[in-house]
Amino acid sequence: MSTPIRVTVWGEFRHEKKNPKVAEIYPDGMHNTIAGFLGKDADITVRTATLDEPEHGLGGSVLDETDVMVWWGHMAHKEVSDEIVAKVKTRVLEGMGLIVLHSGHYSKIFKSLMGTTCSLKWRESTDKERLWNMMPSHPIMKGIGDYFEIPQEEMYGEPFGIPAPDELLMVSWFTGGEVFRSAATWYRGYGRVFYFRPGHETYPTYHQDEVQTIITNAVRWAMSGVRIPDVCPNSPALEPLPEDPEAASRSKIGHK
Ligand code: ZN
Q1: From ligand 1's centre to the CA of 71, what distance in Å?
Q2: How many Å apart are CA 147 and CA 203, to the nearest integer?
Q3: What is the C-alpha to C-alpha distance for residues 81 and 99, in angstroms, rounded to an integer?
Q4: How far does residue 16's CA lie from ligand 1's centre (Å)?
């Protein structure tokens, strides 16, 4: 048996406390629903962390012990400390995977890793979402057909202010006519980043099979298996180098 993938599901966990409709769909919070289906996989060990815990639940050795982080935030992006965001970013660059869900498009960590606005069009109405599979050969799309539908979702529309994805896996169509790049990957440093659009808090999206399959597949894909701290070393030659005829005069000039 292979070493389990250590996942931390980070949830803002505010809507669930304030909005009874959200609490009804996710009585233990969206983070626990997501952790619940991920934890059923024998290859995954899962913990959760939330905004209102000390250091947002990401202090101590949590980041050291995380191979892949899942991030859902919305109403309190600004309350996430810059210091914690910097630590998470460093871990991504070292090789930690990051899966950003839905309104996490506007989180500090996603915006920082993308380097762009990450803005989009949105509408909370009666749209259905149809997600088209652009890359059936990709490991994150395993078990997903040509398309699947979410009966009710918030609309996100283009233009989406992201850098061109390294891989575009899904494009969504909404009843109102818009389209959106709804599943995409980027490599940042040694880390792998996946953005997945669905998951508005007032709909039971994270209870849907296809959504659970994609997030579980994404955890496997995002596990890089490396941790490479940032260094910028002066490097001795591996082979004897020919003598440099100008070295003597360079050192003379240098010591004038
Ligand atoms: Zn939303």
Answers
A1: 14
A2: 19
A3: 19
A4: 13
With contact defined as beta carbons under 8 Å apart, do 170 and 132 qualify? yes
**How far does residue 36's CA lie from ligand 1's centre (Å)?**
21
Query: Hey, is 252 helix, strand or coil?
Result: helix
The encoded tokens of residue 63 equal: 């980041």
Question: Ligand 1 centroid to 201 CA: how many Å?
Answer: 6
**Rounded to the nearest whole angstrom, what is the distance from the C-alpha of residue 195 to the centroid of ligand 1?**
14
- Residues around ion ligand 1, judged by CB within 5 A, are 103, 154, 200
What CATH number has the domain spanning 5-118+180-254? 3.40.50.880
Tokens, residue 94? 């070292």
From the CA of 23, how far away is ligand 1's center (Å)?
15
Helices 209-222 and 30-39 pack at an angle, to 10 degrees, of 70
* Spatial distance between the Cα atoms of 255 and 250, rounded to a whole number of angstroms: 9
DSSP string, 5-28: EEEEEEE---HHHH-HHHHHH-TT
Asked if residue 91 lies in contact with residue 63, where contact means CB atoms within 8 angstroms, the answer is yes
Per-residue pLDDT of 44-66, as tens digits, reads 999 999 999 999 999 999 999 99
CA distance 13 to 57: 12
List the structure tokens of 210.
């296809």
Which pLDDT tens digit goes with each residue over 11-47?
Answer: 999 999 999 999 999 999 999 999 999 999 999 999 9
Whether the full predicted model's pTM is greater than 0.90, yes or no, is yes
Kindly report, residue by residue over 127-176, the tens digit of the pLDDT. 999 999 999 999 999 999 999 999 999 999 999 999 999 999 999 999 99
Residue 73 Cα to ligand 1 midpoint, Å, equals 9
